[in-house]
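agent> fetching stored inputs for the zinc ion docking request
agent> found them:
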Amino acid sequence: MVRRSARIQYSGAQKKPSSDQIAATATVAKQADEIKKLKTELKECKKELKEKNQKNQLQMFNQKLEDHKKNLTEKMADVMVRIGTKKELEKEKKEVEELKKKCLDMLKKKSNEAIERNGGPFEWQICSVCLERFTEEDQHTPRVLKCGHTFCLGCITKLWKSGDIKCPTCREVMWCMNPATVTKNFMIADVSK
Ligand SMILES: [Zn+2]
Ligand SMILES: [Zn+2]
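agent> prediction call returned; pasting tokens
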């Protein structure tokens, strides 16, 4: 009887945990809970970080895209300015050409009127060496020497002697490799067309 009750008491003591054991179990459970929480937090942090990285990458990509766009816009503007300037220049060039032609026509008209009033060509329209009128024809084109006197190319070629041309009017010597390169007197040439 005594033995049996002792056995019951024993088994009862085994079933009932001590307060230390209860406390330890509670601590472990609490710690497990905390670990679980921390794991969840860590998971969330990782997720957030991933999102942030993706966002950063997207921002960087967007920035690069913006820079590229800005660069292209600037280049485009530059090209537009250049096209505009070129068009403007071409227009101005055309206007100058037209004005030049108008002036030349007027000059020719006035010159012809003056020749008519004079009863013949002026002295400056005639080569003082061969006494022929300056024309567009190569050998009769007016050429101006360094001294400022003008003669026809034919006469200048005859005056040329081993690299020197001696002006028949003032005797100044001009060095020249090739008489054909002597500057054309455009003032006279233009009204002699
Ligand atoms: Zn001549
Ligand atoms: Zn001269």
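agent> quick read of the result: The chain has a mean pLDDT of 89.
agent> awaiting further instructions
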